[in-house]
Amino acid sequence: MKLIHTLNPAFKSKYNLTINQYIRHKKILISKNLLFTTQLTLQDIANLVGFNSQSYFVSTFKLIVGQTPSEFRNNCKK
After folding, report:
1. CB 62 within 8 A of CB 42
2. Are 27 and 17 in contact (CB under 8 A)?
3. What domain range is 50 assigned to?
4. Is residue 7 part of a domain?
5. Domain tally for the chain?
6. Average pLDDT, 10 consecutive residues per value, the chain (78 residues)
7. Does residue 60 sit within a domain?
């Protein structure tokens, strides 16, 4: 447990994100690529990148990107 209490503050101080936030951002980055390059469903993408539910994936995506995954995919096509 002591390592976690040391690692989390050190990570946040270096990257200005918690470890969990960093992981979520990486998942969204991969998701953006999948939305742009494939026709996978949102559920498939959510599962592939490790989200437990499509709704959590969509809300996290929108929080980080500023639009839903569907909006992002539609805007990429334009």
Report:
1. no
2. no
3. 18-77
4. no
5. 1
6. 79 93 97 97 98 97 98 90
7. yes
Residue 1 confidence (pLDDT): 57
Per-residue model confidence (pLDDT) at position 64:
97
pTM of the model: 0.87
51 contacts 58 by C-beta, under 8 angstroms: no
In 3D space, the residue among 27, 29, 4, 25 whose CA is nearest the CA of residue 16 turns out to be: 25
Residue 5's pLDDT is 78
CA–CA distance, 41 with 16 (Å, rounded to integer) = 32
CATH code for position 70 = 1.10.10.60
**Ramachandran category for residue 51: left, alpha or beta (phi over 0 → left; psi -120 to 50 → alpha):** beta
User: Does the CA dihedral 40-70-55-11 come out positive or negative?
Assistant: positive
> Quick check: is 37 in a domain?
yes
CB within 8 A of 67, min separation 6: which ones?
75
